[in-house]
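Continuing the batch. This is chain 6 of the set; chains 1 through 5 are on the previous pages. Same settings as before, nothing changed between runs. Recording input and output for traceability.
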Amino acid sequence: MLQTLKNAWVIKEIRNKILFTVMILLIFRVGSVIPVPFVDIAALKAGGSTNDFFSYLSILTGGGLEYGAIFALSVTPYINSSIIVQLLTVVFTKLQEWSKEGEEGQKKLAQLTRWVTVGLALIQGIAFYIYLKNSNFLTVNGTGAYWFAGAVIVLTLTAGSTLVMWLGERIDEKGVGNGISMILFAGILSRGPQAFASLYINAVEYKRWLPVVGIVLVFLVIVMFVVWMTHAERRIPIQYAKRVVGNKMYGGQNTHIPIKVNMSGVMPIIFASSILMLPTMILSFMKDTTSTMHKVLSLFSVQGTFYAIVYFLLIIGFAYFYATIQFNPVEMANNLRKNGGAVPGIRPGQPTSDFISKILSRITLLGALFLSVIAILPIIIGNVGSINISVGGTSLLIMVGVALDTVRSLESQMMMRHYKGFLD
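Output for chain 6:
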């Protein structure tokens, strides 16, 4: 990775793209500490740390929520919007037609995603304002002042989230890597100093060297394991029949269909965590702590055993759901038969479809267990070692995935530049 960055830096064109990306990320980080008006920042930082819902969102937004910053919502509305549009594409025929129209259709889907992002940012901004008002984190008094402050806060947060989306698109256009992923990566990485500070305090001040060393070793092992699982794949062998057309013979080739073990990435974790955050979000708005509803919702505490069990099962369920959306064994089997391809030892048609479904089910289970273990491991370590880990399993998967994708992007750009003269 370091050698790739070194080689890329020598090339002026790629170096300019890297510098542009860094500039955009610096703008994002500056906006993540500029507070919106009418918010008591000191009270918010003190009270927000005790709220599981906003503590979780703060990790993904780089601490913007703790500062009540203009970029407090970060890329979460855009991520949720992308997930919603992707699911709607499976349901609605019109969106399916757009997805098959090439570049023009992708532009329509991108525009729809932007509008849904603005709507979600508006809803989340209102929810954040209600939390601030109910928790007395505002610096205004009076009904009229509350209405004015609410309008300013909600519109500022919505505009900030929209600007973050625009910054991500600029990285896609003129920078390196995927823009939204890079911004999310920068937000998570900004929590690194806080995580190291927490480990330092536990090791030096509280003399808990053994748990700290254990956490560091486990972290390194997990990173290597995540990298290995990210590249792991199951290859289904395919053999094409020979065809004679005129004086030429086609086919007769042996190839394979690669199926990644972790084909869904972090999507099942994002789906599961989004659902499990709803009870915690509702709980943050409730003032009556003695009600039955409050006690039921309290079971979904982020560090609780019940939360970990439900989280584990939901990730497995969503992994199968996402695999079903991505792969259609019947369609794959039909395409193979039309092109004269077949799996050695398996008859074309329904037997091939059943064989691919069986392989897909096993691979999905393995990938789902991998995601589930990575996701709940920080919860287990936090409860056993009594140490708060700022970088959770989701964050770790995102950071490793974005780092690998960025390196691949740099390598592909260097390769294209290397062969540019040959192609010309």
